[in-house]
Amino acid sequence: MRAFGFLSFGEYATRRDPGHPDARTSMGDAIEIAEAADAMGVNGAYFRVHHFARQGAAPMPLLGAIAARTSLIEVGTGVIDMRYENPLYLAEEAAALDLISRGRLALGISKGSLEPARRGWEAFGYVGSKDAHGSDIARDKFDLFMRAIRGESMVDADPTQFGRGARLLIEPHSPGLADRIWWGAGRRETAEQVGRMGVNLMSSTLLTEATGSSFADLQREQIDRYREAYVAAGHTRAPRVAVARSVFPITGEKDLVFEDLGSQERDRIGTLGGFAATFGRTYVGEPDQLIAQLSADAAVQAADTLMLTIPSHLGPALNLRILQNMAEHVAPSLGWRPNTQGPVRAYPLP
Fold it and tell me: In the chain, what are the domain boundaries?
């Protein structure tokens, strides 16, 4: 592990009681957390994207606001649901934000997780999927998005303006952005596909398969297969790998509240959307205990970036306490390099 950031679900309610922020408060809290995290040396501020739910759904305005208030922290998503996106418009937005933030944008993209709406992407006008989960249109759109941000020409130009045979790119273009795109994978086979695609790998706190192995070992196998497929496909850029964990360091009496958040002390096997699933455990304890546990977590050790899932609905003070404890008492012993040491670097390829 070289870097850590926070992953917020952006949850909100319709009232403003403690622990139940409304949408405006939730977004304001996110900006406040990210601004303070930037000053702590935290490497990334990442946000989940869900539609038809009281969670973050339109990440670009929020990421833009955070980028304007910070200087070093990476801003991104985990993950944008590509089924709901216009790939060329997303390419324009992403490039503009990357230029504004001076190369600090890192987007996690995927098919998306289980959504409240049944085929909700069709309500956004994206029809034609032959797959019940929309995987086919998500992959096609992602391919077009990547071509656009890599600077490939997209359309024929008006010959009266540019001459016959001219082609046009998506503008603006931000060099290097394509190297900071993750695809979120929940299965080993998907991770292999991501490796062949040549983009970075993001893996969350659940996997949509169960083999009997521990969550960490199964996720480590996913990472290993990804890197093998990446090299076999002929890619040479060192790719980034991010994994998510729920980690709550306890350093004093103020932190005992975190014990109530750590009820899941073991991996769980269940189902999600009709698939077998392995759910990762929650880590709660004193720094020495957490350092030992995370050092023994095979996937955390294989990833360059650790994303801490935070209870964002509980407000900035509590969440900043988690990040501060991690930065001061846990992360340095795991190989952490604060954002003042420069952008996050991937582990070299073997």
Answer: 3-341
Q: Decide: 34 and 70 in contact? Cβ < 8 Å.
A: yes
Instruction: Output the CA–CA distances (angstroms, integers) from residue 156 to 34, 135, 165, 251, in the order listed.
Output: 41, 29, 7, 61
Asked if residues 59 and 75 have their Cβ atoms less than 8 Å apart, the reply is: no
Q: What pLDDT, on the 0 to 100 scale, is given for residue 278?
A: 86
In the chain, which residues have pLDDT < 70? Answer: 15-18, 262-265, 271-275
The pLDDT tens digits for 178-192 are 999 999 999 999 999
Q: Residues 209-254: pLDDT tens digits?
A: 888 899 999 999 999 999 999 999 999 999 999 999 999 999 998 8
pLDDT for position 270? 74
Place of tokens 């014990």: 259
Among 35, 33, 39, which residue's Cα sits nearest to residue 340?
A: 39
pLDDT of residue 20: 83
Find residue 203's DSSP bridge partners: 243
Contacts 24+ apart (CB under 8 A), 186-193: 187/222, 188/218, 188/221, 188/222, 188/225, 191/222, 191/223, 191/225, 191/226, 191/229, 192/225, 192/226, 192/228, 192/229, 193/229
Does the reported pTM lie above 0.90? yes
How many Cα atoms within 13 Å fall on the side-chain side of residue 221? Answer: 14
153: enclosing H helix or E strand? strand 153-156
- The CATH superfamily holding the domain 3-341 is Luciferase-like domain (3.20.20.30)
Which conformational region is residue 78 in: left (phi greater than 0), alpha (psi within -120 to 50 degrees), or beta?
A: beta
CA angle 312, 317, 323 (to 5 degrees): 70
Q: Which residue has 């019940």 as its token pair?
A: 132
